[in-house]
Design goal:
The radius of gyration is 23 Å and the shape is globular. The chain has one domain: Orthogonal Bundle (Cytochrome-c3 Hydrogenase, chain B). Helix 4 runs antiparallel to helix 5. Strands 1-2-3 form a 3-stranded antiparallel beta sheet. The chain has a 3-stranded antiparallel beta sheet with strand order 6-7-8. It has 17 helices and 10 strands. The longest helix is centred in the first third of the chain and has 29 residues. It is an alpha+beta fold. The termini are far apart.
Length: 401
């Protein structure tokens, strides 16, 4: 028999459950400070900064060509998205217009990268719910996309595809035929993956978990599949076309759902796989002939870029990616500011996690497909006064010493 004093204590007890920064459920290091009552999550505090690399500052101390390779390493999954977004800004400042074939090839790599990213996320989600067979099946399909990258660009992860004024690698007829074959295989695989996720067991595990309403998604400015799963119909490829998306506008639709739960965020990515297959096929069918770059040396093109500034944005696999680029007119950058999709989406985790159970935390975190290496920032807080401030690199070095 439980005495009255124990029941009263349990009713008002609150416990702090630390998750991370190193934890089996997290693919990258960040810290969740979760306040729980029994199994229920009452409040959440997010802590970033464990893998902050200061890439914005590093890029400002290199020339434009070196900065391209640096931005490519912000994220291994979205490497092409970062370089395209950066180079588009440079091309706008320099008044450079890449050839049409180069724009189509950028779009092709973009959508293959989206397939790579979405299949990776679906595999991780399967793993988080304990469906290891589906995890391996999904990642086997992802390997086919990585093999395509290796054949087209020579690299599986960092493609080094973009150069100022175009792209580095062309597509041969043989590669185009293989790409079409792989896309047909991916389509068959995706249909089977969708059947697995529509199974009663998986659907019940994800439905109603990690709810984010359309109002909250709008107020928190979330982007990408996370936003579209909550009913926000926004996609940079449609709303502000770049590369060849303006020409391919009729070949795909924007996928959105209204449920706003972990299942909806997963389903949006599955359905986007079908749409990106359509884009790839349309891009290959309409691929124009001609050069793939401006035919000038990278150093000469770099020196043609004057002092100026531009904002560029693309639809990366996780959502809208924004670059603010300010050139100094002397082969380098005066300022680089990057707003990554995860930086926008990670704030929504608090809304999703409050009210859920402890066992749902890994599934909900996975559902936004977080990339912590590109989201980390540093904020300095004076513990005595509580003052929050931003400092430059020189002042930070003095504080360290």
């Amino acid at each position: 028999m439980v005495n009255e004093r124990e029941v009263k204590y349990d009713e008002f007890a609150r416990f702090i459950l630390p998750v991370g920064p190193v934890h089996p459920a997290l693919k990258e290091p960040f810290h969740l400070k979760i306040i729980v009552k029994r199994e229920e999550v009452l409040d959440v505090e997010l802590r970033l900064g464990h893998v902050h690399r200061g890439i914005e500052f590093l890029a400002e101390n290199r020339n434009l060509i070196q900065a391209i390779y640096l931005t490519e390493r912000i994220c291994g999954i979205c490497s092409h998205s970062h370089t395209t977004c950066f180079i588009q800004a440079l091309e706008e400042v320099g008044g450079l217009k890449p050839p049409e074939r180069a724009l189509y090839l950028r779009t092709l790599i973009f959508e293959l990268e989206r397939a790579h990213s979405h299949l990776l996320l679906l595999g991780i989600m399967a793993y988080q719910i304990g469906f290891d067979t589906l995890f391996m099946y999904t990642w086997a399909a992802r390997e086919k996309v990585l093999d395509l990258f290796e054949e087209i660009t020579g690299n599986r992860i960092h493609h080094a595809m973009n150069v100022i004024g175009g792209v580095r690698w062309d597509l041969t007829p043989k590669m185009a035929e293989k790409t079409i074959r792989v896309m047909k295989d991916i389509e068959v695989t995706t249909r089977r993956i969708y059947d697995f996720f529509r199974g009663e067991t998986v659907e019940k595990r994800l439905s109603g978990v990690g709810l984010l309403s359309q109002h909250d998604a709008h107020e928190l400015c979330v982007v990408g599949p996370t936003a579209r799963a909550s009913g926000l119909v926004f996609d940079v490829r449609k709303d502000d076309p770049y590369a060849a998306y303006g020409d391919l506008n009729d070949s795909f639709s924007v996928i959105s759902k209204k449920e706003g739960d972990s299942y909806a965020r997963t389903e949006v990515r599955i359905l986007e796989l079908f749409e990106l297959i359509n884009i790839v096929q349309a891009a290959l069918d309409r691929l124009p002939n001609g050069p793939i770059n401006l035919g000038e040396s990278p150093v000469r093109l770099m020196r043609r870029i004057p002092r100026g500034e531009a904002i560029s944005r693309v639809e990366a696999p996780r959502g809208e990616l924004i670059y603010f680029v300010k050139t100094n007119g002397g082969d380098g950058l005066e300022r680089l500011k990057i707003r990554t999709p995860t930086l926008a989406n990670i704030i929504s985790l608090k809304k999703m996690l409050i009210g859920c159970e402890i066992a749902d935390v890994p599934v909900i975190v996975t559902s936004i497909d977080p990339c912590l290496s590109c989201a980390n920032r540093i904020t300095l807080v004076d513990h005595e006064t509580g003052e929050v401030k931003v400092v430059n690199a020189d002042e930070l070095r003095r504080k360290k010493s």
